[in-house]
Amino acid sequence: MLRWVFGRWLPALLLLFGVSACVETAPPPTVEPPAAPVASRRVLVAEFSEVVARVGPVAERTCLEAARGRFRCDFVILVDDRPGQPPNAYQTLTRGGRPVIVFTLGLIAEARNRDELAFALGHEMAHHILRHIPRQIESATTGAFVLGTLVAVAGGRPGDIEAAQRLGATIGARRYSKAHELEADALGARIALAAGFDPIRGAAFFERLPDPGDRFLATHPANSERIAVVRRAVRGVQ
Length: 238
Description:
By secondary structure, this protein is α/β, with parallel strands linked by helices. The protein has helices at about 40-65, 105-110, 115-130, 130-155, 160-175, 175-195, 200, 225-235; strands spanning about 5, 20, 75-80, 90-95, 100-105.
């Protein structure tokens, strides 16, 4: 069963096993912005909760069909209302494997309509359904092993081997990150559409984000590519 929590997250809940961060924004300001008035926060969270109420059941059904008992689908949706947090959303897991979706209040405030919130929520839930965190961990482990072994065979010192393992883990973790984002965009679009939202309108959020382009080892694909994937996913359903 989906659980919806507003407020500062519970430290015991977020003993993170892994994180899939999905929104790249401009760096936060050096001076912490003032907290939003309580009334404004209530309006924002009320709007987001309505989106959760519609998107959540669709995503859980999709998850249960994919999981077939192999992983958990009882999502927890949290809002991080700490002052000064930049717009962000990400998916993570508790130590027990329960999927957790975290939205900062800044991201909720940044959204211009419910379609953007629905698409973002569907995208984060899609990361779990598609098992991106376990796949990322497996790739990172393989990268650390391969590069560490190569340095060890070449006679590297313990410090060199450890550095190679860290580099290999980083490369491995990022190897499929762009593909994972596009997969989550496509499935998230289908989830938002099934919940009665317009994911193409929702994906307009990308037009306001800094474009990561095609940088080496970048974790996110170009914004234009993501919008194109969403359009194809919607056409495929229609």
